[in-house]
Amino acid sequence: MALHSSAAPEPTGSESAPARAADQERPPAGGSASGALLVAAAAILWGTTGTSQALAPPGASSLAVGTARIAIGGLALLAYAAWRSGPKALRALFGRWPLALAGIAGVTGYQLLFFSAVRTTGVALGTLVTLGSSPILVGLLGYALRERLTAAWGGATAIIVTGLALLLLPATAQVRWDGVLTALGAAASYAVYTVVSRALLMRGLSGDAIIGVLFGGAVVPLGIAASGADFGWLAHPSGLAVAAWLGLAATAFPYWLWIKGLSRVPVSVAGTMALAEPVTATLLGVLLLGESLTVVAAAGVCLVVLGLLAMGRVSG
């Protein structure tokens, strides 16, 4: 999405930057191509999550795997933020505690609602509703940052959403509307923590501290939600390997890339570029798990890639 506004400040981690002056800053006109590529790289790593879960030992529930993922990844991000930015940058987040709490709630809500959605209405439809509606919700919430949606952003997003529909429709079973509503809740949660992260960046806070606090903070509510889950699978070497990959390679590192990219592009562009995730998941399913790819689904992959290229031109 091309946005007609002045550049947002680079995150400094400084507590002393005047809030009023920072609040007057606006996101960059279209962002940078490098920022879009950083978000896309993060999405590709996120796309390994489903295949990694499929390789987990028997008895590893979605909630337990998701909690382990955020526990390892969130604490790693928090430790990195403390080392890289220092206590002062972390304390600055507490000065923006309403936004920080909203971001933590968004991270927590996405994990809980997304896993519940795919359990209720199936992986295909749950993923389609979540990922297909998230860029729309991100774009709408972007108005809070004074971003303006354009026809170019809308066209690129429409191509990607159409591709996702073709990609997932052949595998879609009967619709469970409670699952659809839960998936919409997951998309809204994603939009919340995306927009909150961008808002905190615009106020001059450290990107490392933001992502560390949001994901590190989500460990507590997720741990409470999964208190009755079985974590015995972590005793197996393969279970530890899966948890380590999910926490570090599919969470900590890609979210570090994501927050760096988010400092360079509008939230609407970031939300749409992140749709590279289902393409990666589909290709890995075909190549590593032996899943079939129909002609219609292949056409969907091509459309998503085309839409991502279009979005890259918007952000450049």
From TrEMBL:
One GO location term (cellular component): membrane
Stretches that traverse the bilayer: 29-48, 60-83, 95-117, 123-145, 152-173, 179-201, 213-234, 240-258, 265-289, 295-314
Topology within the bilayer: Multi-pass membrane protein
UniProt region (Disordered), positions on chain: 1-32
Compartmental location: Membrane
A Pfam family assignment: EamA
EamA domain ranges (all copies): 34-168, 179-311
Record's keyword terms, sorted: Membrane, Transmembrane, Transmembrane helix
UniProt cross-references to InterPro entries, sorted A to Z: AA-Vitamin_Transporters (IPR050638), EamA_dom (IPR000620), EmrE-like (IPR037185)
Subcellular location, principal: membrane
Tree of life domain: Bacteria
Family in the record: Belongs to the EamA transporter family.
PANTHER family, A to Z: EAMA DOMAIN-CONTAINING PROTEIN, INNER MEMBRANE TRANSPORTER
Protein name: Putative transporter
